[in-house]
Design goal:
There is one protein chain. It is built from 13 helices and 17 strands. The model is unreliable at 360-365 (pLDDT under 50). The relative contact order is 0.15. It folds into two domains: 2-267, Rossmann fold, CATH 3.40.50.11440; 302-363, Alpha-Beta Plaits (2-Layer Sandwich). The protein is of the alpha/beta class.
């Protein structure tokens, strides 16, 4: 059986204790790290956001993981490759640098110590950070959020940060033509990295236009498992979504890598709190009959729109666009024929100037 642990945690002042309790219910931290063993802890550091914005893994969740790993004598590093900005800047604003400094743990930018070529079931020659693959163990610390392309960003999606730097944009273009092809890429990365443990930060979650501009959800929950797919399935269920709305879960089911009947959920009770899907995400169309879904999604899948009042012309969206569909011409111009609707611009805009239309507004040019 694949055990998934749920621990109620009302606020982050109790998160360190919550992580410790979750690990205890999984059999103890010593099951996932050992004395003298190299361990990489991989949080979600999408971009430079304060902890209270609920975009990145909260410092208290990281602290709980670091404490547990150090207590068993593991040699811990913390690493990620942010979607925007240097790791130093992003981790400082997210409050993770202070935690690493307090415990004497090195903070490393994934890819800085080397990049290797690895192959999965679908994608060959994946350029992943050596540190995420060569380390003996990886602990994966995702944030519970909606996502415009994947429905939800959970354990499997968080490992996309193992693609260093600008390679993310390259693979967005290579695999981001559809949610299904991008899900196949994410499952390949997950299989290669093969995290020993995943701890989901759901104390404060995000719904609506995630993964960076959504609304706070007081989910008050920490979820942990040695099996990422099982954890993602339980989190999906608690958000009121179905596999049709979360392509990584759907593909894992189709491949036989996930069997719901093999999941054992233990720990605290947790009710379903329906999340509002991100505009244009597969979760918006999860109740549409299968044969109609692809056509409806093509029609209603929104193109991003740029708010001239908030846009400062910084060019971050232009640089991040994998399809080279954006240009700065006084304001941002979008070439809809090149836009693959991956929404990197919306994820990474530091000024919140990119909107995704909802309802009938998305039908307007």
């Amino acid at each position: 059986m694949k055990r998934v642990v749920r621990v109620n945690c009302e606020d982050y002042s109790r998160a360190v204790e919550g992580v410790a309790h979750a690990l205890q219910l999984l059999g103890g931290a010593e099951k996932f790290a050992s004395r003298g063993e190299a361990l990489l802890i991989k949080p979600n550091l999408l971009a430079a956001h304060k902890p209270e914005e609920n975009v990145t893994t909260h410092p208290a969740i990281l602290e709980g993981a670091i404490r547990a790993a150090l207590d068993v004598g593991a040699k811990v590093t913390v690493g990620d490759s942010p979607g925007l900005g240097s790791l130093e800047r992003v981790a400082k604003k997210a409050g993770l640098s202070e935690i690493c400094s307090t415990y004497g743990v090195e903070l490393v930018e994934l890819g800085s110590s080397g990049v290797g070529n690895f192959s999965g079931k679908t994608y060959k020659g994946l350029e992943l950070a050596e540190a995420a693959v060569s380390e003996n163990r990886v602990w994966n610390l995702p944030k519970f959020k909606t996502h415009t392309m994947m429905g939800l960003t959970l354990g499997v999606k968080n490992l996309y940060g193992c693609l260093p730097g600008k390679r993310k944009a390259l693979y967005h273009f290579r695999a981001g033509q559809s949610p299904e092809s991008f899900a196949a890429l994410l499952l390949d990365i997950h299989e290669i990295v093969s995290p020993a443990l995943t701890i989901l930060d759901g104390v404060r979650a995000m719904d609506g236009p995630g993964p960076s501009r959504g609304d706070e959800v007081k989910r008050s929950l920490i979820i942990a498992s040695a099996n990422t797919h099982a954890l993602d399935y339980e989190a999906m269920r608690l958000a009121g979504f179905t596999p049709e709305g979360v392509p990584t879960v759907k593909l894992a089911l189709e491949r036989g890598e996930l069997k719901p009947e093999d999941i054992e959920v233990v720990g605290d009770d947790a009710e379903v709190i329906p999340f509002t899907p991100a505009p244009g995400s597969p979760a918006e169309f999860r109740f549409v009959p299968g044969p109609v879904r692809p056509l409806l999604r093509r029609i209603l899948h929104p193109f991003p729109r740029f708010d001239k009042n908030r846009c400062v012309g910084c060019g971050v969206c232009v640089e991040a666009c994998p399809g080279e569909a954006l240009k700065l011409q006084g304001s941002v111009f979008i070439d809809s024929s090149k836009c693959i609707r991956c929404y990197c611009c919306q994820e990474l805009c530091p000024h919140g100037a990119v909107d995704l239309p909802t309802g009938l507004a998305r039908l307007r040019g």
